[in-house]
Design brief:
Helix content: 55-70%
Structural class: mainly alpha
Number of helices: 4
Largest sheet: none
Order of helices and strands: HHHH
Radius of gyration: 17 Å
Strand content: under 5%
Number of domains: 1
Oligomer: single chain
Distance between the termini: 29 Å
Number of strands: 0
Length: 71
């Protein structure tokens, strides 16, 4: 898997989408089917957020590179 694809799959937006489908109000049979697919995805949401934060930490600059306000 390419890093760019992994970064977009394991992003905060994906965690928000998982949460949205998990907690949505299902009124039609189609929506109920989608909601049932996302039952028990709390840990996947937490893992996705954790990996997103890990990518953010790994992409951060360190002080030897000279972090300043303009960076």
């Amino acid at each position: 898997m390419h890093v760019g694809i992994a970064g977009s799959i394991l992003s905060n937006h994906m965690a928000i989408a998982i949460n949205m489908y998990h907690t949505m109000d299902a009124t039609t049979p189609g929506q109920k089917g989608i909601k049932n697919l996302f039952n028990g995805t709390e840990y996947m949401e937490r893992c996705t957020k954790l990996l997103n934060h890990a990518f953010d930490v790994l992409n951060a600059r360190f002080s030897k590179e000279g972090i300043i306000v303009l960076n």
